[in-house]
Amino acid sequence: MDIRRLCGALLLGLCAMAACAAPVSFENLARHAQYKNVKISPDGQYLAATAVIKGQTVLALVHLSDMKGTTLRPREEDDVVDFWWVSPTRVLYTVGMRWGGYDAPLLTGELFGINADGTGADTLYGFRKGGPSFASHIDRGSAERGSARFIAAIPDDPDDALVAISDWDAAGNEVPLPVVYRMNVHDGRKVKIADVPLRGAAFVADHHGHVRFAYGEDSVGDFKVYERAAEGGDWKPMPEIATHARAHPWAFSRDDSVVYFDCPADAGGFGLCRWDVAKRTMANVWSHPKVEPDWLLWGLADDAIIGVTFIDGRPGLSVFDRSTPDVQALVALMQQFPGESVRFVSGTRDGSKTVVLVDADADPGTFYLLDNKANKLTPLLARAPWIDPERMASKQPIEFAARDGLDLHGYLSLPPGRENAKHLPMVVLVHGGPYGVRDDWDYDSDVQALATHGYAVLQVNFRGSGGYGYGFERAGWREWGGKMQDDVTDATRWAIAQGYADPGRICIMGASYGGYAALEGAVKESDLYRCAIGYVGVYDLRLMYTRGDIPQSTYGENYLKRVLGTDMDDLARRSPLYNLDRLKARVMLVVGGRDQRVPPVQGQSLHAKLQERGIAHEWLYKPNESHGFYDEANVAELYAKVVQFLDSNIGSASAATQ
Fold first, then answer.
1. Residue 656 near residue 421 (C-beta atoms within 8 A)
2. How far apart are CA 563 and CA 120, in angstroms?
3. Residues paired with residue 263 on neighbouring β-strands, in sequence order
4. Which spans in 475-622 are helix H?
5. Can you list the domains of the chain with their CATH numbers?
6. Cβ(194)–Cβ(211) under 8 Å?
7. Would you list the DSSP string of 444-466?
8. pLDDT band per the 50, 70, 90 thresholds, residue 218
9. Which residue, of 52, 71, 315, 459, has the fewest CB within 10 Å?
């Protein structure tokens, strides 16, 4: 063999080995998905997609026949957040500003429209209407102070759509009750349809332009469902669902004869119900003993409902009729992508073309176009093509019993290539919320930043989390520092007992409520955790009544009373800020200076207290970030500093025993 070829082969082999051994880039993990969502026009002629270009989320419009298109850039400070086809040639969309109390753009309340070929751009509703807009276009009309929410397109009316609008008062706050309008999608002219009896209501419309249901919680947290006849009239409570606690409508069937409701199962557990509009009867069509339905399973056409999805560890689905062409097409795709989640996300009116999303715990996902007539599947857009799923960690669903016998679920992610390792250094990653939010089997860059750099990652859906029923969620009320914290502790001890975690090398981390749980865990279980990382967290529960955006409304105040309680002395006893005498763990605090949900005073107060006591700790403060970092460079820096902090306190997985 030629010696030069041999040397070249050896060199290539060494380079390949080095590439495999190189750690996953924090910069790549921190990048926003290049494509967030893709929807096909009702006639299948165009695609619309939210894409990230130079850090800004824009709306891309593509003509499928030649794959040529145009890109709409909103104002420099804005990102496109969501969009909807309201006719074969017209798209409505919303934008958000990169400020406020969230780790993503905050909706401005405006509503915009544009034609599929890039013409006809207009501000249909919003406080900036009448001023300069994108592409030097001057909008018609005058400014309107309020927030618009898209409800539904009207299939037989390409010129109108249904929207709900909540006006703002002089201080810029939303007035309590929204109003439903029929809005012209070209110029924003509105015709009032109905007042709404419920603050912040969600809506369900039929396919003929009638808003039929409004539902949500009232100011004291009681759940309400109102219905309205197709021909109009007053809103009325639904007496038929009185025995179905917190049952609420999701969508009408294609012929408007049936409404699907999230509801309890007849024999206990959770279910999906079918409400017969003519007979006014409710029948259970799916049930599960442990988890709620996640959402409806959509078919090939844009409004075909073929089943229900749920998350019992991994994503699952149940279909109503296995013999239908829609289900057969879905099954064929699932066989083509084993181990992945496959779902139809957008279809044409006739079901001839459908956008398919394939993703997994280690895969951010790829959009495909399914041509049903030609039986052809074509890759369209990869969400994050720079991510190699082969180098990512997988999520293993776990289940165990809490100390009081309550069944708990979560996920364990082990470093890639070390799935059989034992006694690893571990990070307990606690989700925020805390109520109604859950960890699930999705691609999570926070998890990957830790697992691909040598750490086992444990996540638990403690009581209060979503997805397991209202009773499970309510079991977490007033349990900050109590049973919710005990659930996290029990999960940690479970991982130790199973041999996954080295008991001397465990750190606890979280954002928002998770930041609270991280520091509360460090003071309540002082010998369990070697370090704690609080990210935009709450450390003084009493301040939640006076600082931040939650107590600025009656609804928010009542929410705090329900979930926290009003005993200020008790709240102090459950606040990490007042229990530092028990702290043994090393601490890292991460704070955003523009955080409105958990104002920076929370982190700054704990930072000052630690300094007063001479307790060394890491401090990462970004004045222009909010409730969770959004800027890619800041997220990459956060990942790097977190892993450096972990390395210095609990070591890397390279030191763990096999």
1. yes
2. 47
3. 271
4. 483-497, 513-524, 554-564, 568-573, 601-612
5. 394-549+577-653 (3.40.50.1820)
6. yes
7. -HHHHHHHTTT-EEEEEE-TT-S
8. confident
9. 71
